[in-house]
Amino acid sequence: MFHVKHADYDATASPDSALSRDDGPQMDERSAAHRVKLPVKVVERPLRQVAKRLLMALLVLVLTALVVYADRAGYRDSADDSVDLLDSFYYATVTLSTTGYGDITPVSDSARLTNIFVITPLRVLFLIILVGTTLEVLTERTREEWRLKRWRSALREHTVVIGFGTKGRSAVQTVCATGLKKEQVVVVDPSAKVIDAATADGYAGVMGDATRSEVLKRAEVGKARQIIIAPQRDDTAVLVTLTARQLNRSAKIVAAVREEENAPLLRQSGADAVITSASAAGRLLGLSVLSPAAGMVIEDLIQQGSGLDLVERPVVRAEAGKRPREIDDLVVSVVRGHRVLGYDDRSIGTLQLTDRLITIVRASPGTQITPHIRPLPAD
To answer: What is the per-residue pLDDT across 163-191, written as a single tens digit (0 to 9) for each?
Structure first.
């Protein structure tokens, strides 16, 4: 049995803010049916659309009545042989609705030509407005299901983010800053409000408890390239990591924990990298106290896309055979196999084409971005 130490309750957290927490669902949200929600296009509100179409239909009705009234001499009413304004609206209503009682009929040539070239097109337009609105409402669910199936079939090598709180959102923003498209990100969270916020930002969302394999399967975890696990509780992170690793043996899993002593459990559960959020924030605070300038530099390095960026890239052919200090970029570490060596490690010797470099570069608009690859400096 795993024993996971829980972090102390944060009394400063606001219970009314659903987005201020990474994983704080209510029991009714946990028991809700799992569902996938794709990003939606920004459109007018449904009630406004319906009201606009009803107004258009009313204008068509009024226009038809006025056309009939203007040519009332060419119509005959079986009741009194005369057609007034009320009779015109009555005729327009029964004609556009295709009811056609036949009590008012066009008898002159001009009235019949008007029916052919004016009233008939208006009738078709009237039916398109009303019937089209009805069909749109009825087919919306079918269209959404078809869109969901197409999304599932096209989803490959994507990134799954479990927990869309402060840590999860920051992680996604950092990854997207290196060129990952929002269409390749799936957010999993048990809170409906959080999923709505994620889809509003352009990400696909799956509402449900990520510790359950059914929920992760809806996010297509088995086909994911990388998985970011950032819940509020450490025990949740352990269970999610176990489930995700069981579904996907090859994906890169990065998890966040609050207590440093729980990090080994995450690694045993299958996480490739574990970030201790509370300790990291505390160390940055301490460094900022001792040296505010050093704290600013570290914060700049971890903020992708501005100032200085800490990036990982392969060794290019022109750099092979050189020492880390002999290349143009500022090398921090060399990744050789499964080892991360400091730039001054004597065992490095000269750089090899199979090595990867962790360097500090200046972020600029000329930075080359390649999907699933960290930015390389432009030639």
So the answer is: 998 888 888 888 887 778 888 899 999 98
277 — pLDDT class (breaks 50, 70, 90): confident
Tens of pLDDT along 106-128? 888 788 788 878 888 887 888 77
Q: Which two tokens stand for residue 169?
A: 């959102």
CB 208 within 8 A of CB 218: yes
Closest CA to 227 of 205, 199, 207, 248: 248
Q: Do 356 and 312 contact (CB within 8 A), yes or no?
A: yes
What pLDDT is stored for residue 167 in this prediction? Answer: 87
Between CA 285 and CA 167 the distance in angstroms is: 17
Long-range contacts of 180-184 (CB under 8 A, 24+ apart): 180/371, 180/372, 181/371, 182/39, 184/157, 184/158, 184/159, 184/371
Q: Which amino acid is at 95?
A: T
Does the predicted TM-score (pTM) go above 0.85? no
Cβ–Cβ under 8 Å, residues 63 and 125? no
Strand segments (E) across 148-272 = 159-162, 185-189, 204-207, 226-229, 252-257
- Closest residue by Cα to residue 155 from 230, 247, 222, 248: 222
Nearest to 257 by CA among 270, 266, 246, 269: 266
